[in-house]
Amino acid sequence: MANISRRDMLKMSIVGASSLALSSVNANASENEKDIKFDEEWDVVIIGSGFAGLAAGVTAAKRGNKVLVLEKMGRVGGNSVINGGGFAVPNNPLQKKEGVKDSDELFINDCLKAGLNINHLELLQTIAERAKDTFNLTLECGTEYYDKLSHLGGHSVPRTINTKNGSGSGIVHPMVAAFEKIPNTEIRKRTKFDDFILETNKVVGVKVKENYKFDQKLIDDDNENTSGEIKFIKAKKGVILASGGFCNDLFFRQLQDPRLGVNTDTTNHPGATAGGLISALKIGAAPVHLSWIQFGPWACPDEPGFGVGTKFNSGASFRFGISVNPKTGKRYMNELADRKIRSDAMFKVIGDDKNYPINLCDSQVLQHTDPERINKPLKTGILKQFNTLEELAEFYNIPKADFLETVKKYNEFVKNQKDLDFGKPLSLATTKGVNISKPPFYAMRGTPKLHHTMGGVKINTKAQVLDINDNPIPGFYAAGEVTGGTHGASRLGSCAILDCLTFGMIAGENI
Amino acid sequence: MANISRRDMLKMSIVGASSLALSSVNANASENEKDIKFDEEWDVVIIGSGFAGLAAGVTAAKRGNKVLVLEKMGRVGGNSVINGGGFAVPNNPLQKKEGVKDSDELFINDCLKAGLNINHLELLQTIAERAKDTFNLTLECGTEYYDKLSHLGGHSVPRTINTKNGSGSGIVHPMVAAFEKIPNTEIRKRTKFDDFILETNKVVGVKVKENYKFDQKLIDDDNENTSGEIKFIKAKKGVILASGGFCNDLFFRQLQDPRLGVNTDTTNHPGATAGGLISALKIGAAPVHLSWIQFGPWACPDEPGFGVGTKFNSGASFRFGISVNPKTGKRYMNELADRKIRSDAMFKVIGDDKNYPINLCDSQVLQHTDPERINKPLKTGILKQFNTLEELAEFYNIPKADFLETVKKYNEFVKNQKDLDFGKPLSLATTKGVNISKPPFYAMRGTPKLHHTMGGVKINTKAQVLDINDNPIPGFYAAGEVTGGTHGASRLGSCAILDCLTFGMIAGENI
């Protein structure tokens, strides 16, 4: 701010979340350049340091670009670093090892089914085709993976690879290190993107606030927070928007679904707001699927936020066990359906009296999944351990006889590899023959929590942001949760890592 | 254009559909005023001459304002003038006459159920509370109504009043006449809104093209059509956006649902594009529910567009008869469910082989609904008349025995006032005791067609357009289908007239 007068500021072409006033402009480009005094100059500026931003950064920097990554929070990684570390890779090496047959077509059809067929097919095809390259990028950066597949809901077959540490941080941290090793790169924390700088209709830079202190107590941090010092940064080759989703934007999420008020818990980090998305809409980016907001069905009501309950439910109970309504002792859904189907079914059970479903499995799971999926939630106390099914039923006040009958019936289904009640996929590749019989038994209360915003700006297969006339906005790319279309109405579990990394990488290749 | 140089144009603050370039601005308001040379000056400028625009116009003009209504097409009324003329009015006089008990609460709950509970409740409450005023406005303007109620899908009780001529034109034409009788008013046809003119962040006028020739052959008329002469019009008190929905905007509708390509028929007039909506988003209007696009389940595949089949299905066959799958001879849905439920059910029946459902009723309907609902589609040949049910089954190739059994069962349901198969409301107020027994029988093939876009800009209960910070954009109002939130995920039939007229009226009261 120091070296730019108020008059100069008003003369610039700034359009963004915090300013409706369309301040200044340029009869032509040269005049415009005269008006703007940039504090710094980079080849590529990336907004956000999650999966998409980092993959873009590494890829663009490897091509010799001078790359700056902006991160408004005090730590890198946004939602990615607290993500569960599941990475859907169709046709992956672990599938070969475990004898699972997969194909791009099967993967795409699974996504279309969950997405209610409103997915933008060209984007879906792109993440399928590039999955191997994307997986390799993480290996090159140093990510280590667990040696067993997961089978997440909505996927026809097990196709999810997991980071060794069971978290997205297993991808984020090596990628940060790889990025920072490349010359002429920087990740600048506590630096908030505020507005795009345009030259006619081309994105040529950003206005930011440095030394920004995100304030979780504000209803609308993007607009109320005035901390930090304003700086103008030139991006010679363009800007990549990778600012993530808006599950923690109270105002914008309620615009799309008024039920999502302050009491709706979310798995997202506090900084998951809509500021970047809104700035993009204001410079003409086409909006896609903004009103599709997803609940993750594998959370636990007995801890706040993402927590560790997800580890148990998405990796153990839903695949190797069952979910029952404690009032009836009966199952009520396919535990491996897509997220929307499961969340809708769970909300019906929960009703107005917080009748949270009970998710359970037995100790055989320890041989087929990361034991931390049991150990971590046991340690926090949200997962309970029982010596008998009767004890479990008593603890949660479930009608005992009906519950035992439910387990018996489910075990028959596992044996026959066919769920006659809800159509859960029970092939041997999925169940490994695990039924519910071997103590100790593990159980946890379950609930859906706000997890992913499907909508965002429209991009093409080169990760260029398209305007409402279907034309790329020059100098403007986007990747990850801030984009819309890939997942249609509902994203399948573990497809976020694939989507974010792939389009981040593609943005880095093309900018 | 004549008296404004290119240089002047570039200096103005124009943001809109046709220009991503944010051309010029103002260090302060006075400079800005100096830059702009308006060709005309009005108190209020209204974009669109449908229900919302006209109600806004009449109301604003009655308050002494000089009001200009812009209409890009060669005729007034947009979709409103071809609308079916059904007007949901909770607690209306015809309900009293026919002994139907209704309440605001019942109406709101019906709308919330169809809207999947994502409706903006304050807007829904507003149209319920003001319904009587809105109905009276149409009576004052001279609309005549038919003397029997309709019962449309998703409403718990019959509450739909119908214009005497069975069309929205029965409201539009008297309202146009009433508007034009008021001094200092004008409806200017073939005049297309292009861009908003801003003074800092206040809407102070519009850029238009006069003598515009809408070109149905263009993929994207809003952006490709260069016909007409540019003019700048000042709106001293503000602009009311009433530009309608975007069911005929090939690009924008496919952004939200890629399946809605050129082969997807719609009931909408050719000019139903997204240009006005997009211009509003570009000046910071908050977007709501853009991806919810509705099919009307009462159309006919044997005629293009809205046609006259709707008259039969929405007023006769769905209420007094049944819809059967011609392959099975059986019913497959509650014919009075909401539009989304019915459309989804019908698409399943239609499948990939165009197995259109058959909608039918008997001649008793002529005593309980406008006979034109039968006569008009009979004349065009899309409705068929049969002396026996057997003949009907033969004509449509329906398995005879199963079909006769279906009719027999349905007649039992009517007698007992209870649909045991699909839960269709069969109280005497709805059926008037009409079953399917008295020849001649009438039948028509049915299909859903694209009908209404639920999404749009966010308004408050004063019809002010809100920006992304929840603040009204000064000088900017909106009403009707271009707004979002009132109907949530799916609008109930005959609520469009109520919504459009009410918020149009409110905009006219507040501007």
TrEMBL record, chains A, B:
Heme found in the keyword field: no
Entry keyword Oxidoreductase: yes
Ranges of residues in domain FAD-dependent oxidoreductase 2 FAD-binding: 43-496
Highest taxon in the source lineage: Bacteria
InterPro entries per UniProt: FAD-dep_OxRdtase_2_FAD-bd, FAD-oxidoreductase_2, FAD/NAD-bd_sf, Flavocytochrome_c, Succ_DH/fumarate_Rdtase_cat_sf, TAT_signal
Cofactor(s) needed by this chain: FAD
One GO MF term: FMN binding
SUPFAM superfamilies on file: FAD/NAD(P)-binding domain, Succinate dehydrogenase/fumarate reductase flavoprotein, catalytic domain
Short name of one Pfam family: FAD_binding_2
Signal peptide stretch: 1-29
Keywords on record: FAD, Flavoprotein, Oxidoreductase, Signal
Family as reported in the entry's similarity comment: Belongs to the FAD-dependent oxidoreductase 2 family. FRD/SDH subfamily.
Protein name: Flavocytochrome c
Organism: Campylobacter blaseri
Species classification: Bacteria, Pseudomonadati, Campylobacterota, Epsilonproteobacteria, Campylobacterales
